[in-house]
From TrEMBL:
<feature type="transmembrane region" description="Helical">
    <location>
        <begin position="314"/>
        <end position="331"/>
    </location>
</feature>
<dbReference type="InterPro" id="IPR036197">
    <property type="entry name" value="NarG-like_sf"/>
</dbReference>
<keyword id="KW-0812">Transmembrane</keyword>
<feature type="transmembrane region" description="Helical">
    <location>
        <begin position="337"/>
        <end position="357"/>
    </location>
</feature>
<dbReference type="InterPro" id="IPR012830">
    <property type="entry name" value="Citrate_utilization_prot_B"/>
</dbReference>
<feature type="transmembrane region" description="Helical">
    <location>
        <begin position="272"/>
        <end position="294"/>
    </location>
</feature>
<feature type="transmembrane region" description="Helical">
    <location>
        <begin position="239"/>
        <end position="260"/>
    </location>
</feature>
<keyword id="KW-1133">Transmembrane helix</keyword>
<feature type="transmembrane region" description="Helical">
    <location>
        <begin position="123"/>
        <end position="145"/>
    </location>
</feature>
<protein>
    <submittedName>
        <fullName>Tricarballylate utilization protein B</fullName>
    </submittedName>
</protein>
<keyword id="KW-0472">Membrane</keyword>
<feature type="transmembrane region" description="Helical">
    <location>
        <begin position="165"/>
        <end position="184"/>
    </location>
</feature>
Amino acid sequence: MQSLEALTREAAALGANQMPAASSADEAEVGRIMQICNACRYCEGFCAVFPAMTHRLTFAKNDIHFLANLCHNCGACLHACQYAPPHEFAVNVPQAMARVRVETYTDYAWPAALGALYKRNGLTLALAAATGLALFLSLVALIQGQWASGPLAANFYAIFPHDTLALMFGAVFLFAVVALGIGVRRFWRDQAPGPASGGAAAEAAHDALRLKYLDGGHGQGCNESDDAFTLARRRFHHLTFYGFLSCFAATCVATLYHYLFDWQAPYALTSLPVVLGTLGGIGLVIGPAGLLWLNLRRHPLHGDARQKPMDRGFIALLLLVSISGLALLAWRESAAMGVLLAIHLGAVMALFATLPYGKFAHGVYRGAALLKWSIEKRHPPRLGVGGE
C-alpha cells in the first residue's frame, strides 16, 4: 500500500499538470500548495480555507485570491502540517496566502498608483501624511488668526469652524468609501459568486464579527511564535475593530446632536458621544498595541516580511489617532488644546486617506470572501467529475 506522502505527491503532481497558469510567482505558489493540501486534507477542519479548497480541482487566479482573503493568517495549519519546512514540499499556507493578499490590495486598488505606492512605503507614507496634515492644519489656524494662547473652554470650533471640518473630513471619508467600494466591486465581479441570500449574508456577518476563524478550528486559538495556542490575536483584533466602531459611532451621534437637535459641542464628559469616543479610544490603544507586540515577535514563517511596513503603518496611525484623541479629551480646556487638535485631526485624515490601500482593506476583502464562502456552501460549484 502506498504511503500518504506518496499518494499526496502523485495527486499534487497530477493536479499541477492541470492547473491554469498563474499571473504571478506568489499566485503560482498558492496554487502549488493548494494541490498538495487538497491531496492531504489533514487541516480540513481548521478554518474555511480548506473546505473551500475541496470544492476545486484546479486553482485559477480568482480562486487563489478568494482563498487568500478567506485565510485569517492564524498559523494553526503551519504548526500542524507534516509537509511544512524543512520538508521538501515546503508547504507554508499562511505565508503564501499573505503574499497573495497584498496583491489583492494593489491589483484591485483605485487609483492603482496609490495602491502600489502604499504597498512599497506603508509606514513612511502613513507617518508622513499624518505629520504633513497636522502641520498644514496648524498653519491654517495660524494664518486665520484663530490660534489662541489661552484656554478656549474646549471649543474646537473656535480654532476650526464646524463647516470647514465637515467639508474636509467629508471629502476624505467619501474618497475612502468610493476607493474601497470600487476595489471590492472589482474583486466581487471577478469572483462571480452568484446571488447572496439573507441566510448567507447573516452567516458571513456573524463569522466576520466574531472572527470565527481565529480560533484555530477548535476554540483554543491560533499559534503565534511557538506551538502554544492563544486567543491573543482574536482579542486584540476585537478591541481594535470594536474600538474603531465605537469612535465612528461617537462621530455619528455627535453629528445627529449638531444637525438634528442643534446641540452644539463641546459635550459633557458623561454625554453619549464622549463616552463612546472614550471607550473606543481605549480599545484603539490596547488593541493596536497588542497587535504591534504580536507583529514584532511573530515567527518569520507566519507571514510576509515585506508587508511589515504596511502593517505597522496602519497600526501606528491607529495608535496616533487614539492617543492624540484621548490626550485632546484630557487637556481640551488647556492652552495645549490647539496643538493637540491639529495633531489629532491630521492623524485622522491620514488614516482615512490610506484606508483603501493598507491593512484596513483586508477586513473588507475578507468580509467579501466570507460572503462568497457562505454562498458557496449553499451552492457548491460543479467539479466536473463523475458526470457532474
